[in-house]
């Protein structure tokens, strides 16, 4: 599916729930947010139907997100359903890791290709400060359990906030002895994330080079999107960067998003897309759904303008409502 700017759109991030068992300070308030009624959230059957249509349109990669996707019951069943769709090559998952220990075995058996674990620090105290929950140990046990499956692509996502004690180099060190790709993800200026200044890619690269020496670029693709990867000497894994604001990669964007309530969102900043839930529940034919998806992709904006103070237009949803 080629959009109007010549980009090949072949990757969708699907939020299966807006619920989460953490309360990260850059994502939501301590008391949480108003949650969608269960009846308004897409069923697994509705998600599968949309993915079948997308596969016919040339989509090959699906990322399941939340909220926290593992709080939704029987997620392995959805993975199993999606793996049966011809053309879908990779089904992956982003999780905070709290429930990963029990979930990872059934997910691998169902056919999950990879898991991204969000982990901003290896300090239990700072973890509690960021997430407002005392579950650091559970996350680490989940990560250790995932390492038992060598066929699984395992990544750790870290948002480098520059707060005292975060010690991002210790997070980077996870890639030294383990087959883990540690990615530093720039804070997106959405919702509560606007309140924080994230360390830039260049600042982090300088810190890494001081400690590990030359950072060798990795040429082979390691993920679904435009992350750039580097490998210091004697590292089993790699270090990646996703810097959507300071190193804007809109010209290479290959993704769209589907919220848990069925809104097909074509750009993170703007409220552009289609209400697929309404079409599904009104009984629209698959041909109609495909036509509307194609129109939405052709209307996908050229780029975001998060760094431009003159352009204030944006989606009113928070990240937990859009999908990570």
Automatic annotation (TrEMBL):
It comes from the Bacteria. It is an enzyme of class 4 (lyase). Its EC number is 4.1.99.22. Keywords: 4Fe-4S, GTP-binding, Iron, Iron-sulfur, Lyase, Metal-binding, Molybdenum cofactor biosynthesis, Nucleotide-binding, S-adenosyl-L-methionine. It holds the Pfam family Radical_SAM. GO terms for molecular function: 4 iron, 4 sulfur cluster binding; cyclic pyranopterin monophosphate synthase activity; GTP 3',8'-cyclase activity; GTP binding; metal ion binding. Its cofactor is [4Fe-4S] cluster. The keyword Transmembrane helix does not apply. Residues 4-226 form the Radical SAM core domain. GO terms for biological process: Mo-molybdopterin cofactor biosynthetic process. It catalyses: GTP + AH2 + S-adenosyl-L-methionine = (8S)-3',8-cyclo-7,8-dihydroguanosine 5'-triphosphate + 5'-deoxyadenosine + L-methionine + A + H(+). The keyword Nucleotide-binding applies. SMART domains: Elp3. This is GTP 3',8-cyclase. It comes from Lactonifactor longoviformis DSM 17459. The lineage of its organism: Bacteria, Bacillati, Bacillota, Clostridia, Eubacteriales.
């Amino acid at each position: 599916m080629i959009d109007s700017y010549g980009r090949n759109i072949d990757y969708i991030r699907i939020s299966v729930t807006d619920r989460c068992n953490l309360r990260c300070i850059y994502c939501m308030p301590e008391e949480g947010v108003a949650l969608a009624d269960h009846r308004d959230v897409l069923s697994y059957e509705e998600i599968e139907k949309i993915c079948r249509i997308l596969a016919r349109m040339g989509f090959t990669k699906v990322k399941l997100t939340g909220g926290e996707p593992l709080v939704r019951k029987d997620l392995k069943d959805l993975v199993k359903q999606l793996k049966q769709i011809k053309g879908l090559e990779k089904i992956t998952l982003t999780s905070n890791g709290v429930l990963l220990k029990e979930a990872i075995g059934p997910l691998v058996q169902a056919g999950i290709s990879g898991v991204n674990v969000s982990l901003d620090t290896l300090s239990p105290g700072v973890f509690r400060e960021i997430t407002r929950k005392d579950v650091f140990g559970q996350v680490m046990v989940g990560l250790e359990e995932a390492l038992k499956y060598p066929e699984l692509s395992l990544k750790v996502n870290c948002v480098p906030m520059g707060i005292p004690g975060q010690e991002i180099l210790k997070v980077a060190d996870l890639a030294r002895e383990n087959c883990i790709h540690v990615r530093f993800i720039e804070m997106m200026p959405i919702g509560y994330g606007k309140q924080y200044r994230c360390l830039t890619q260049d600042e982090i690269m300088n810190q890494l080079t001081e400690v590990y020496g030359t950072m060798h670029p990795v040429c082979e693709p390691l993920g679904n999107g435009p992350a750039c990867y580097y490998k210091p000497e004697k590292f089993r894994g790699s270090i990646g960067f996703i810097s959507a604001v300071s190193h804007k990669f809109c010209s290479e964007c290959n993704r769209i998003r589907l919220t848990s309530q069925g809104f097909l969102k074509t750009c993170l900043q703007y409220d552009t897309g289609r209400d697929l839930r309404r079409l599904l529940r009104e009984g629209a034919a698959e041909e109609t759904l495909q036509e509307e998806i194609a129109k939405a992709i052709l209307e996908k904006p050229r780029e975001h303008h998060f760094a431009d103070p003159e352009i204030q237009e944006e989606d009113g949803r928070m990240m937990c409502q859009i999908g990570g």
